[in-house]
Amino acid sequence: MTEEDLGFLPATELAPMIRQKKISPVEVMTALLSRIGKLEPKINAMAALDPELAMEGARAAERAVMGGGELGRLHGLPVTIKDLVWTKDFNTEAGSHMQKGFRAPMDAPIVSRLKQAGAVVVGKTTTSEFGWTGVSRSPLTGITSNPWKQGYNAGASSAGAGAAAAAGYGALHQGSDGAGSVRMPSHFCGIFGLKPSFGRVPYHPVPVGDFTSHIGPMTRTVADSALMLEVMGGPHPLDHTTLEAWPADYTGRLNAGIKGARVGFSADLGHARVDPEVAGLVRAAAERFAAGAGLAMQEFTPAWGRLGPELGRGFWSAHMARMAPKLAKWEAQMDPGLVACIRAGSEMSVTDYLALKERKHAYITAIHASFTDLDFVITPTVSVAAFPAERLSPEHWPQHPWDWLQWAEFSYPFNMSWNPAATVPCGFTSAGLPVGMQIVGRRFDDLGVLQAAAAFEQVQPWADKRPAMDW
């Protein structure tokens, strides 16, 4: 098996091979580190990489296999962690000069759970500065390139994870999503991404931002995400927002099908601007999905859709305003768009914020009411395909000092409402850039969303598509 094949091999295939001694964790890690070393100067997906530590973990995993003891579900499998998540063995720098050199006192709960399941952490993946934007660059790490086109946006704050998955840096990558940062890079990079129901996966420290950020898996196959979510999910005492229930049997029930499910398709949520080529690809994919999986699909134009932009922009800038005291010292070393966003949020009064929050609660109620008669909602994941990463918005879109949400109107509503939402690769533009289709389910129905994504994967497989990266 070649280096490349090992880099792209699904975790659900690699894990049993390791347990059956058909391949060793050391062989896997050696091949993966070699591949990363060859590609990383081009892609820049890794914010921190420690080959010696990774090999030490692989050798320990190999000793456990040879010793014949009980092995975890992810035993010997490489995994990456986003550089917003605490890790005791790597710095957590959040893409910012102001956090450079920070070493957390402990692993976040998800890192501990992945390790307890036998996974070996390879390193940390790049993020935009404090996760503020939908573009794959930061003042600290520079541009992370989309593997499908050098210098192009790999998307949002989990861009490093998306690029790593697309480039074959192993099967399992952790992302987080406060306004689309699991789904957006998955869309741009042509992989599968899942934002679970809020509280399904624990955080520590619990982030500010009015409880909109969700941790989720980013993988090439739906089954790998189901497996990873089972390991990461479940209540934890350090996160008071986690759900009481442990994850369902996502892997065992993944292929049950969703025949007869009631689906609402919306090309624009009644208000969003979408590039015509993206809209066409998503509509065609949704129609194939409905026909192939036996779905009852109808057009869906929610009355709540047009209320989203004011809320999305208002809360995004208001929550970033918490960093205003940092500007006096750090502004010159910060992302200029983040500075503009902080200044805009600083102009909001407490009265304005509370009025906005009151409207948000009504908005969330309306979103959930939509699922009274629908099992799933399907939309584009993002309004555009990848564009040059030095830009905040595509050249043909309206320009703004900080507002990237204008081309990402489909993701943040479901951060506010806490619904599970996934993106599946559904086609390529004429320029060869990936496009994603979003599948949203009722709150708590993470299993249903995974089953829907698996059903689409059978109708229109995507995991065999690999970027050439022949730049």
CATH level-4 homologous superfamily: Amidase signature (AS) domain
Beta-sheet strand percentage? 15-25%
**Tally of individual helices:** 15
Gyration radius, rounded: 21 Å
Give me the strand/helix succession: HHHEHEHEEEEEHEHEEHEHEHHHHEHEEH
CATH class: Alpha Beta
Content-based structural category? alpha/beta
User: What's the average pLDDT?
Assistant: 98
CATH architecture: Alpha-Beta Complex
Distance between the termini: 24 Å
Q: How would you sum up the major sheet?
A: 11 strands, mixed
CATH topology category name: Amidase signature (AS) enzymes
Count the domains: 1
Proportion of helical residues:
25-40%
Low-confidence stretches: none
- Total strands: 15
Can you walk through the features of this model?
The chain is an alpha/beta fold and 471 residues long. It has one domain (3-459): Amidase signature (AS) domain (Amidase signature (AS) enzymes), CATH 3.90.1300. The protein is 37% helix and 15% strand. The protein is built from 15 helices and 15 strands. The chain has helices at residues 3-8, 11-19, 25-43, 51-67, 109-116, 159-167, 183-189, 222-232, 276-293, 308-320, 327-330, 336-346, 350-370, 412-417, 446-459, and strands at residues 46-49, 78-82, 120-125, 137-138, 142-143, 145-146, 149-153, 172-177, 192-195, 214-219, 262-265, 296-299, 376-380, 421-428, 434-441. A hairpin with a 2-residue loop joins strand 6 and strand 7 (149-153). Helix 6 (159-167) runs parallel beside helix 7. It is globular and about 60 Å long. 57% of the residues are buried.
